[in-house]
Write a structure and sequence with these properties.
The complex is a heterodimer of chains A (144) and B (145).
Chain A: H1 3-22, H2 27-34, E1 39-40, H3 43-65, H4 84-100, H5 104-113, H6 116-135
Helix pairs in contact in A: 5-6
Chain B: E1 3-4, H1 8-32, H2 38-46, H3 52-68, H4 85-101, H5 108-115, H6 119-137
Helix pairs in contact in B: 2-3, 5-6
Classes of the chains: A mainly alpha (144), B mainly alpha (145).
């Protein structure tokens, strides 16, 4: 197995354990963060803040070196285009996230754990993803 | 009227979990050369040109609730045990379409993009978070509460 595969396996485990430990696998807790006019639970801000803080040095390295630690090429997203597609997509995602309290990471973990409603949600998410790739693919001119 | 519901242990667990997620994003970036954006990784796994490294990350992620259960009990998804199915499916579709159109979700834009000082990601995060807060404030949800 290559180093890249081993790192990816370890990263997948860390990600899932982080979600479970932080309670972000509970849709009610996520919705409690979004509920700023009611019973507000700021947990998600601590999770996101901690994650960003821990990832800052790695991204600083990646911007400077453009390689992995082992020297393999690394591609950082360098798109800067802010357009209707970005904002519209984010808004649609926001509606789905607000309604359910589920975003893709927690949905996959909770679905895998055996929750039938969340498995149904994941199936719908997969369908939405495939449909948008099939019918709403960006035109070549919009790829910056 | 806003009331804040939070405790010190809750804050500590949230921060610790967040640090693990950030460590994961760092490891995937500097070890594998990939961005830890779950919607992108999931989308790649469902596509024909799938990338072995991303698939391995995804499988490890899916294994975590089962590995957790080797140590202690874990019951997830209880909050959605009795959903309104139509709304739940609609929400899933919106998350799938929206994250593909907007090129990212809470992890890709919210963690990786912000850690990379991407203005594009900041716009995406403010948009999806603002819209989601509005949806909740207006009382919409997939459970009949």
């Amino acid at each position: 197995m290559s180093k890249q595969v081993i790192a990816a396996a370890a990263a997948g485990l860390l990600f899932g354990f982080g979600l479970i430990l932080s309670g972000m696998t509970d849709p009610a807790k996520v919705r409690a963060f979004l509920d700023i006019t009611g019973q507000w639970n700021p947990a998600l801000a601590f999770v996101m803040g901690g994650a960003i803080l821990a990832a800052l040095p790695a991204f600083a390295w990646a911007r400077r070196r453009r390689t992995t630690l082992a020297g393999a090429p690394l591609s950082l997203p360098d798109r800067t285009l802010i357009d209707a597609r970005l904002v519209g997509g984010a808004a649609l995602f926001g509606v789905g996230w607000g309604l359910s309290g589920l975003c893709p990471g927690p949905a996959l973990v909770v679905g895998s754990s055996g929750s039938l409603p969340v498995l149904v949600f994941v199936a719908a998410m997969a369908l939405g993803l495939l449909l948008s790739r099939r019918f709403l693919a960006p035109r070549a001119s919009t790829l910056a | 009227m806003t009331t804040i519901v939070f405790s010190i242990p809750d804050a500590a667990a949230s921060l610790a979990g967040g640090l693990l997620i950030g460590a994961s994003a760092s490891l995937l970036l500097l070890g594998s050369g990939r961005i830890a954006g779950i919607s992108g990784i999931f989308g790649n796994a469902l596509s024909t040109g799938r990338d072995r490294v991303r698939v391995v990350f995804l499988l490890a992620l899916l294994a975590t609730p089962w590995l957790w259960r080797l140590v202690q009990p874990l019951e997830l998804g209880g909050a959605l045990a009795t959903p309104q199915w139509g709304a739940l499916i609609g929400a899933g579709l919106l998350v799938g379409v929206g994250t593909q159109l907007g090129n990212g979700c809470t992890s890709g834009h919210g963690v990786c993009g912000l850690a990379n000082f991407s203005l594009r990601s900041l716009v995406a995060v403010l948009t999806f978070m603002g819209v989601a807060m509005l949806v909740v404030a207006l009382g919409f949800g997939v459970t009949s509460a």
